[in-house]
Amino acid sequence: MNLMGATTLLLMVSAIGTGCDSGKTSATAGAKAYPLDVCPVSGEKLGGMGEPVVFVHQGQEIKLCCKNCRKDFDAEPAKYLAKLTVPAK
Questions:
Q1: Neighbour tally for 39: CB within 10 Å
Q2: What pLDDT score does 71 carry?
């Protein structure tokens, strides 16, 4: 391996090793974080039925317990978005 190849490899490994993982995918980056640990549709604990369904609706990250809850959310998003707001104390 020549010096140029070794330098490139070293830079790539360094970039991978020091990367920042915010926990957000590119699809949810920039959205307001989901504040609950339960599905707003079913009330089920997230992760209890496998990986949560994650998407962004009007700038808000949404997490549902399963794909079946998506149709209910899409039918009445305001109803479920209201569950995400926490009253100020």
A1: 24
A2: 97
Nearest CA to 47 out of 30, 34, 57 is that of 34
Q: Which two tokens stand for residue 36?
A: 């609950």
Condensed to tens digits (0 to 9), the pLDDT of residues 4-33 reads 554 444 444 444 443 444 455 566 788 999
DSSP bridge partners of 64? 53
Whether residue 28 contacts residue 54, with contact meaning beta carbons closer than 8 Å, is answered with yes
Domain ranges of the chain: 27-84
> CA–CA separation, 36 vs 30, rounded Å?
18
**Domain 27-84 -> CATH class:** mainly beta
Is residue 70 a contact partner of residue 62, using CB atoms and an 8 Å limit?
Answer: no
